[in-house]
Amino acid sequence: MNIQAFSARTGISAHTLRYYEKIGLLRRVQRLPNGHRNFSEADLRWIEFVQRLKDTGMPLEQIHHYADLREAGDNTLAERQQLLEDHANHLRESIAQQQQHLDKLNDKIALYRSAVKRGRLSCPRLPQPA
Amino acid sequence: MNIQAFSARTGISAHTLRYYEKIGLLRRVQRLPNGHRNFSEADLRWIEFVQRLKDTGMPLEQIHHYADLREAGDNTLAERQQLLEDHANHLRESIAQQQQHLDKLNDKIALYRSAVKRGRLSCPRLPQPA
DNA sequence: GCTTGACTTAGAGTCGACTCCAACGGCTAA
DNA sequence: TTAGCCGTTGGAGTCGACTCTAAGTCAAGC
Asked: Which of residues 54-113 of A touch B (CB under 8 A)?
């Protein structure tokens, strides 16, 4: 798979893919005799996992660390598991927080809905004069 | 409330508060005769709302736009409502997406759990030789 | 009167994550 | 054989959001 095809399948720009290889998120990408990258299905599975970590807020540096562990072999399994569990815990908390934010936002929207009907936002403390 | 007290109550650094005022997220902050800022309870409520928008992924530029609308008065109520509803919809989708990511992550962690017991990650296709 | 410390400003620097640029190579089609 | 692509590289530039620095003001305490 050349870089354009891989870009199309991952939704990551060719620029960014080269950048990821440069900083070590993608490693040992095969090359054709002319020097062009030749991405594999394994690269695809890996980059999809990288995307998941990134999309859930893990910094590239930490993903890089995970890649280091992965490269180091089976004696880093426990550390990788720990890393993923910590990340999953953060994610759980973050989702709960976002849900709270959403609830509050919906409260505010409800205020706006009735305010738009009245044409003003402020809610007077006292009944309007007759 | 001086900038330190306001910083303590919001969790936003004094640096960042000045920055927010500079870029127009905080407006018409009162000053003491010596030029020091004197934040009000209304400033507090506003900045907490700003934090909520920011924490849910709204760029400062869009929050700035909301501040513009707010400043323009009651004839922007409908537009503000729309902006918040759009944002709430994005947030809803984002939460669903994050939840999916979490589920997949948990699947992977489950794999790791059993892998750590075995001491290797790969799952052989065939039963082990006797 | 002098130091200390919190505050002020404009503007520069940092950081993470891209994003682009210039200069080049190799393949194909006219 | 030359034009037009697609690919390569190192390195520079951009962007959002801070974060810090330098130089200054001002009030309180010793």
From this structure: 55-56, 74, 77-78, 80-81, 84-85, 87-88, 91-92, 94-95, 97-99, 101-102, 104-106, 108-109, 112-113
